Amino acid sequence: MGAILNGMAVYGGIIPYGATFLIFSDYMRPPIRLAAMMERQVIYVFTHDSIALGEDGTTHQPVEQLANLRAVPRLVVIRPCDANETAYAWRVAIESRDRPVALILTRQDVPTLDRNRYASAAELKRGAYVLAEAANGQPQIILIATGSEVSLIVEAQRELEKKNIRTRLVSMPSWELFDTQSEEYRHSVFPPQIRARLAVEAGATQGWHRYVGDLGDAIGLDHFGASAPGPVLMREYGFTVENVCKRALALLEKNNV
To answer: Cβ distance 14 to 40 under 8 Å?
Structure first.
């Protein structure tokens, strides 16, 4: 499929796209790499993006695939959190004339965030943005997530605010788009003085310390999954509000906040 998509992109007059499970991006890596080298507009849609896939087990549950794709130069990887971010992710893909884009989509149901309460999904084009600010605008800790885990940190913020922990939420659908932003903007999202940062993503944690720093932490998956219902796996591997709050409080203690 990859060779066909690249051939269509080279011929021109069409924006080629293809879709499969994220785990099968391993088979697609050579043509993805070539599309990036040739600066061709190809859209890759990868679904079933985490261990929440469930009973198909370790052979079909992606763990390291996000990290693999993010390592490809010129490839833009976008993992949107809800329907609104997905719509803007498609816009970015359509407008990216000289580079391929990989859209990473979840299998499980996720809530569509109320954008009257949370920041506009149009901010996806910046790669990362402040989804919700701390109650008084002076956060003690920053919770960061992508894809289906954004709704998890939204719930965690509610619990932390009940404990008077001032918490900023950051949706970070695309590292590549964020890295192209100005230093001023990047520091507005991740102020250097706020060292307590917790990233949450159902995949390998490789690379996250670029954003959370030496005093930050990441809840991820640095081992293979198992054959069990998706919700059971997510709970057993720490993707719960309780665990996010626990790790956040530990970070605050570590940073003497």
So the answer is: no
Please, where are the H alpha helices in the chain? Answer: 2-11, 25-38, 65-70, 83-95, 150-162, 175-179, 183-189, 209-212, 230-236, 241-254
Answer whether 46's CB lies under 8 Å from 17's CB: no
For residue 103, give the H/E element and its range: strand 101-104
Domain 2-254 carries which CATH code? 3.40.50.920
Please give the single-letter amino acid code of residue 46.
F
Q: List the domain boundaries for the chain.
A: 2-254
Q: What averages of pLDDT result for each successive group of 10 residues across the chain (257 residues)?
A: 68 86 94 94 95 86 96 98 97 95 94 95 98 92 97 96 95 98 98 96 96 96 91 94 96 83
* pTM of the predicted model over 0.90: yes
